[in-house]
Design goal:
Helix content is 36%, strand content 20%. The longest helix has 21 residues. The two termini are 18 Å apart.
């Protein structure tokens, strides 16, 4: 079952997605169409056949030169017809995709995303200001590839590169609109993650959440220091002590179902800049710690998608926002605080701050009795070492949640991989000299991501909980062909698909 975008967003999306009837070279317009590799022979997709018919077979004639278009690659043809003067032909691979069990994703969808992205990139480089896209058999995936690859963060540049208008070759295609909404959710997260920390402070992040979500009917409550102090969120507040920027705690509410239905809770780590505190990080690449609020950004993006598609589910979002800075009042290694659930924490590493702010957020979220709870955090460098950018590492006390998230990742192409949440790792943090629990594992750095997840588990009372460590997927270099270099916004689309599965009653939770 698929859900379509709410009326307001749908009309705005359609305004950008409706194709015009005729194009001209002066209009700087191009079209992306696909071809399949059928035993060494190229077979035109439906969109390519449409262009070929309109051009009286000229597309097929021009394709004869230069050999076959390889899967995921693009070839730009000029002078195809008066209506379609510039055409990017992209390789979709075999029409019948062989199942690749070990890949654990829908390879047909991924082929469409990558191919369409290659075509849009080629036409953009050719100076096209408008790009029509052939759905290539999967309009949702095509829209994702097109809108994700053309995203640019250039708000702070004096000279901005033009961003082409992306349109569907098939008018009013609902699957295309869904894909555009899914991509927009991820692009919102990317924009937030890229924004410099002197601009995107905790307070300004809260305003961005209001700007992005309230127009879609999502309630955004902005809480401050006193509110957190009254609730004994001392683990969260311990991280904020070294910064002049006041902490903020966001509570987001999307009501897509009856108010009596329990919500899905999404908790996002929101450290808008992380120096490591007194346990100072090395200076190399510290600028990338502007994206240490990736979990918070993906929470905003996921809620934007859910609200835009009107998913019939209630969702609560919880985002603790702060900076982790050194200073005269900053938390020191060896300090002990008592979290909101009454457990004392020995803070031996102030650079393991994400788990501290999540501890109080998870306890607060658990008090809302959610049907399921997930958290997203750029939590450990150990996860980047373990999985690289290939997948988000997930930890869960519920096999049902794991199965649903795994299915969601297969659909989105943004995969997840289950990691152990064993008592072995719990003992690494609960064997503590001064307090109930230590924020640094006894046998550090071995199993760092696992011991971090075990730490979080100490603050969870929900029977269906999953922790997503997104540190390894925070940034894209060239791993995902339809994402440019920079902050990735992953795994926003996977979480949106996961929420949709819950909304459909999958898993029986």
């Amino acid at each position: 079952m698929a859900f379509i975008a709410r009326a307001g967003l749908r009309s705005r999306v359609l305004a950008h997605l409706r194709p015009a009837r005729f194009y001209s070279v002066e209009n700087k317009a191009g079209v992306v169409v696909g071809v399949y590799d059928s035993d060494g022979k190229e077979t035109l997709s439906d969109g390519a056949q449409q262009v070929n018919t309109e051009s009286s077979g000229n597309l097929s004639r021009l394709l004869q030169y230069g050999g076959a278009v390889k899967k995921g690659k693009s070839r730009v043809l000029y002078g195809v017809s008066e209506t379609f003067p510039v055409v990017a032909v992209v390789g979709l691979g075999p029409a019948e995709k062989a199942e690749e069990v070990l890949e654990e994703r829908d390879e047909a969808k991924e082929a469409v995303r990558a191919a369409v992205a290659a075509g849009c990139r080629s036409l953009e480089e050719a100076g096209m200001s408008r790009i029509q896209v052939d759905p290539c058999g999967d309009a949702e995936a095509a829209a994702e590839g097109a809108h994700l690859v053309t995203f640019k963060y250039q708000e702070l540049k004096a000279k901005k590169k033009p961003v082409p208008t992306i349109e569907c070759l098939v008018k009013d295609n609902e699957s295309w609109i869904r894909g555009a909404v899914l991509a927009e959710g991820q692009n919102v997260a990317r924009r937030l993650m890229e924004t410099p920390a002197n601009i995107l402070t905790p307070t300004n992040f809260a305003q961005e959440a209001v700007n992005s979500l309230e127009g879609l009917g999502v309630e955004v409550l902005v809480r401050g220091y006193e509110w957190a102090k009254e609730r004994n969120m001392n683990a969260f507040l311990s991280v904020t002590r070294g910064s002049v920027e006041p902490p903020v705690f966001l509570e987001l509410t999307y009501r897509g179902a009856d108010y009596t239905e329990k919500p899905l809770a999404i908790v996002g780590k929101g450290v808008t800049f992380d120096t490591g505190g007194i346990s100072l990080k090395p200076s190399a690449n510290m600028d990338k710690m502007r994206a240490d609020m990736g979990g918070a950004a993906c929470t905003i993006g996921s809620l934007l998608v859910a609200a835009s598609l009107r998913l019939p589910i209630n969702i609560k979002g919880f985002i603790p926002l702060c900076e982790n800075m050194p200073g005269g009042s900053a938390t020191k290694p060896g300090d002990v605080v008592v979290a909101s659930n009454g457990k004392s924490i020995q803070i031996d590493n102030t650079d393991a701050e994400g788990r501290l702010i999540l501890a109080d957020a998870l306890h607060y979220a658990s008090q809302h009795k959610p049907r399921a709870m997930i958290d997203m955090a750029t939590l450990t460098g150990a996860m980047a070492v373990a999985l690289g950018a290939g997948a988000t590492g997930v930890f869960s006390n519920s096999s049902i949640l794991w199965q649903l998230m795994h299915r969601a990742g297969a659909t989105s192409g943004d995969r997840v991989w289950r990691m152990p949440l064993w008592k072995h790792y719990s003992s690494q943090v609960t064997d503590c000299h001064l307090a109930d629990i230590n924020n640094q594992a006894k046998d550090k750095p071995a199993g760092g991501s696992c011991s971090a997840a075990a730490f979080l588990k100490e603050f969870v009372t929900c029977d269906h909980w999953m922790h997503l460590d997104i540190a390894g997927v925070m940034e894209n270099k060239d791993e995902v062909p339809y994402l440019g270099k920079g902050m990735s916004g992953r795994p926003t689309r996977t979480v949106a698909h996961f929420a949709e599965l819950l909304a459909q009653g999958e898993g029986g939770i």
